[in-house]
UniProtKB/TrEMBL annotation:
Keywords: Porphyrin biosynthesis, Transferase. The modification S-(dipyrrolylmethanemethyl)cysteine is found at residue 263. Tetrapolymerization of the monopyrrole PBG into the hydroxymethylbilane pre-uroporphyrinogen in several discrete steps. It comes from Arthrobacter methylotrophus. Gene3D superfamilies: Periplasmic binding protein-like II, Porphobilinogen deaminase, C-terminal domain. Its cofactor is dipyrromethane. Monomer. Residues 3-219 form the Porphobilinogen deaminase N-terminal domain. This is Porphobilinogen deaminase. The porphobilinogen subunits are added to the dipyrromethane group. Its EC number is 2.5.1.61. Residues 247-319 form the Porphobilinogen deaminase C-terminal domain.
Length: 333
C-alpha cells in the first residue's frame, strides 16, 4: 500500500504536505507519495469572492479524497470552513507551531517605528482591524497572493512578485503582516521584524495548526479490518495527532461557528491548555479599528465537548457585548 497525499502546488502547501508525508512514512512504515491537485484558487487570478471564497482551495482537495484520487489531504486548519464535510474526517491535528502574526517591514522597523501614513499590506480583515486599533494612523492596504508575492512588495525583503497577480507592485509597501507559522514552515522567519503578541493581535482560529483529513472509513476509531484492528493508515494518523492542539483549535473554531462568522469576518481567537484548564480568548473588531469586543474564559472540561462549549460561551459573551453591531459577522470573500 502506498499512501497518496493530495496537495496544492504552492511552496507552503508542498512544504507542509512533505513534512506530513515524512512523518506518516516514519510512524506508519509504508511508502507515501505526494499527488498534486490543482485548485480553482491556484489557476485563476481574479477576486477570491467571485470563486466562492477561500474554500475553493479546500474543495478541490476534498473532491480528490472523495474520488479516491488521494488518501490524505493536509490543510492549514485556519483555511478550513467550520461546516462538516460528509464522508471525511479530520484525523489528526499535529502539534501546532507559532500562532502569532508577524510584521515584515522595511529597514527592520517595528510597528511603533512605522511613520504615520505608512502603507501596511494584509488581505485579512481581522489583521486590518487589529492593526488599525493599535495604529489608527497607518494606511492599511488590501493585498493577496502567496507569501513570496506579499514579501516582494516590501523594499529590501527578497520576495518573488507574481507579475500576473500584482503587476508593477514590487516594493510599494512599508510592511506586510503574515502568519509566523507560514514563514516558519518555508524557512523565512528572517524577514520578521516583530512578532505580535496575542494582546495586540489575536490570530485566526486554527492559525499555526494543520488539519490532516482522510476518508472517514480510514480514520482512527472508525477504520478497522475484519478482526477489529485499526488499519495501518489509521494508526499512523492517530500517532500524528496532538490532543492539546485538537482541544485548542476545537474551542477556537467553535467561536466562529457560534458567531456564524464568514471567512472574512474580523474575528480572532486563541486557546491554549495550561495544566488542567483550557483558556480561550477571542475578539471581534470593527474593520476600521474603532471598536473592539474581547472576552476570555476557561474550562476544566478537557474534552472535545468541553472545548466546543467553551467556544460557544465565549461567542455568546461577544454577542452580548455587541459583536454583531460592530462587525459584519457574515462577511465572506
Ligand atoms: N490564508 C493563507 C494562509 N493559510 C495558512 C497560512 C500559514 C499559517 C498557518 O498555517 O496558520 C497562510 C498564510 C498567512 O496567513 O500568512
Amino acid at each position: 500500500m502506498t499512501v497518496r497525499i493530495g496537495t496544492r502546488a504552492s511552496k507552503l502547501a508542498l512544504t507542509q504536505s512533505q513534512q506530513a508525508a515524512d512523518q506518516l512514512a516514519a510512524v506508519g512504515g509504508f511508502p507515501v507519495e505526494l499527488v498534486r491537485v490543482r485548485t480553482e484558487g491556484d489557476v485563476r487570478t481574479g477576486s477570491l469572492s467571485k470563486m466562492g471564497g477561500a474554500g475553493v482551495f479546500v474543495a478541490a482537495l476534498r473532491d480528490a479524497l472523495l474520488d479516491n484520487a488521494c488518501d490524505v489531504a493536509v490543510h492549514s486548519l485556519k483555511d478550513l470552513p467550520t461546516g462538516a464535510a460528509p464522508g471525511l474526517t479530520i484525523a489528526a491535528t499535529p502539534k501546532r507551531v507559532d500562532v502569532r502574526d508577524a510584521l515584515c517591514a522595511r529597514d527592520g522597523l517595528k510597528l511603533a517605528d512605522l511613520p504615520a501614513g505608512a502603507k501596511v499590506g494584509t488581505g485579512s480583515p481581522r489583521r486590518a482591524a487589529q492593526l488599525r486599533a493599535a495604529r489608527p494612523d497607518l494606511d492599511v492596504i488590501d493585498i493577496r497572493g502567496n507569501v513570496d508575492t506579499r514579501l516582494g512588495r516590501v523594499p529590501g525583503l527578497p520576495g518573488n512578485i507574481d507579475d500576473a497577480l500584482v503587476p508593477g507592485k514590487s516594493g510599494d509597501l512599508d510592511a506586510v503582516v503574515l502568519a509566523a507559522a507560514g514563514l516558519e514552515r518555508i524557512g523565512r522567519l528572517d524577514v520578521v521584524t516583530e512578532f505580535f503578541e496575542t494582546d495586540v493581535m489575536l490570530p485566526a482560529p486554527g492559525q499555526g495548526s494543520l488539519a490532516i483529513e482522510c476518508r472517514t472509513a480510514d480514520a482512527p476509531g472508525t477504520a478497522g479490518s475484519a478482526d477489529g484492528a485499526p488499519n495501518a493508515l489509521a494508526q499512523a494518523l492517530a500517532a500524528l495527532n496532538d490532543e492539546d492542539t485538537r482541544l485548542a483549535v476545537t474551542a477556537e473554531r467553535s467561536v466562529l461557528a457560534r458567531l456564524e462568522a464568514g471567512c472574512a469576518a474580523p474575528v480572532g481567537a486563541y486557546a491554549y491548555r495550561k495544566g488542567s484548564m483550557l483558556y480561550l480568548e477571542a475578539v471581534v473588531c470593527a474593520v476600521d479599528g474603532s471598536k473592539t469586543v474581547r472576552e476570555k474564559k476557561a474550562t476544566d472540561g478537557l474534552t472535545e465537548v468541553g472545548a466546543t462549549l467553551l467556544g460557544i460561551e465565549v461567542a455568546e459573551l461577544l454577542l452580548a457585548g455587541g459583536a454583531a453591531d460592530i462587525a459584519d459577522l457574515a462577511a465572506s470573500r
